[in-house]
Design brief:
single chain, four-stranded mixed β-sheet, 6 helices, Rossmann fold, six-stranded parallel β-sheet, alpha/beta, 14 strands
Length: about 230
């Protein structure tokens, strides 16, 4: 019993001594933490539009944003994006699209050379596709986030599984804040049962805070914003 008490006291003494020794380091860490510059956040300005703010915040998290005026320019943008990807390791030879008629109509207007094009492939098949193309039901300007409402379009697997996701977003669907976007999920008395928020490419960090891109989702995210101007 005496040996147990002695060992316990030795452990407590060691803990107390180490805590005392770390006090100076804790104070320095606290000072650095409270005075460190905050991460850059793009804020609205009186002259800035929701499109500009959405584009800036999306690009701040390594997403890509192309602003176009009409359907013909959407087709040109899709063609440009996919052709450029075809010259990279991402290949872009097989394309999965959502079941939205607009997406299928637009992709059919391109003259792309691809090996496979499928509408909402199954959970087993979608893993073999290089690119997924869908619409988005809203964009959140303050964070550059996409809102995908699966009650209005079958695009969950198409947007999350292939290495590249291309989303088509109309300018009138861009709102300022998350709160405004959440209000869009309510349809009458019902709230959509399945919504996905996407902010740039997929990011994953391990216990050592080593960041990996695209482990659990797309490595690249492109948003084509149709301004309608």
């Amino acid at each position: 019993m005496e040996n147990t008490n002695a060992a316990r006291e030795a452990i407590f003494a060691s803990i107390r001594s180490h805590l005392a020794a770390s006090a100076a380091h804790d104070a320095l860490e606290s000072e650095l933490h409270h005075h460190a510059p905050a991460a850059p956040v793009v804020a609205t300005t009186p002259s800035g539009s929701l499109i500009d703010l959405f584009k800036a915040n999306l690009e701040a998290v390594a997403g890509h944003c192309l602003v176009v005026r009409d359907e013909a320019e959407v087709v040109a943008a899709l063609t440009q994006i996919i052709r450029q990807l075809q010259g990279t390791r991402l290949r872009a030879r097989s394309i999965a699209i959502s079941d939205d008629p607009e997406v299928e109509r637009l992709i059919q207007q391109t003259d792309l050379d691809v090996d496979e094009l499928a509408v909402t492939p199954s959970a087993q098949d979608v893993f073999r596709f290089d690119v997924g193309i869908s619409r988005a039901q809203a964009g959140i300007a303050e964070t550059g986030t996409l809102l995908l409402d699966s009650s209005r379009e079958r695009h969950r697997l198409v947007s999350l599984v292939p290495p590249v996701h291309i989303a088509i977003l109309h300018a009138h669907q861009i709102v300022g804040t998350l709160g405004e976007a959440l209000s869009l999920l309510r349809q009458g008395e019902q709230v959509t049962p399945l919504a996905t928020f996407v902010t740039g490419p997929s990011r994953t960090a391990d216990i050592e805070l080593t960041l990996a891109i695209g482990v659990h989702g797309p490595q690249e995210v492109f948003v084509v914003v149709v301004s309608g101007q």
